[in-house]
Amino acid sequence: MSRPTPDEEDDQGEVFLDESDIIDEVPIDDEDLPDADEEEEDDDIVSDEADDSVHIFTGHTGELYTVACSPNDVGLVATGGGDDKGFLW
How far apart are the first and last CA of the chain? Predict the structure, then answer.
């Protein structure tokens, strides 16, 4: 029996969960959650912090999420970002 590829799994339609699928429940205290209004106010504030970047990876068109440096070759760097692309520099 072969395992379906991710593309084949997507073609099977919607997946629904029922009570038997629940592994664990985590109670959340509403008082510990941040207020949505506070987050919106933070977006309006412009940061005056200086850009102290050591390098700018100009190949990405979105946010940069991860950078990995080779332990064997100091000139080899891999990056991944919000533009769904990975680069080797």
Answer: 41
89/83 Cα distance (integer angstroms): 16
Q: pLDDT tens-digit profile of 70-84?
A: 889 888 999 998 888
Q: Residue 60 contacts by C-beta under 8 Å, 6 or more apart in sequence?
A: 79, 81, 82, 83, 85, 87
Can you say how many angstroms the Cα of residue 62 is from the centroid of all Cα atoms in its chain? 12
CA distance 34 to 37: 9
Structure tokens at 22: 């629940």
C-alpha torsion angle, residues 46, 49, 54, 55 (rounded to 10): 10
**Using alpha carbons only, what angle is made at residue 11 by residues 6 and 17, rounded to the nearest 5 degrees?**
85
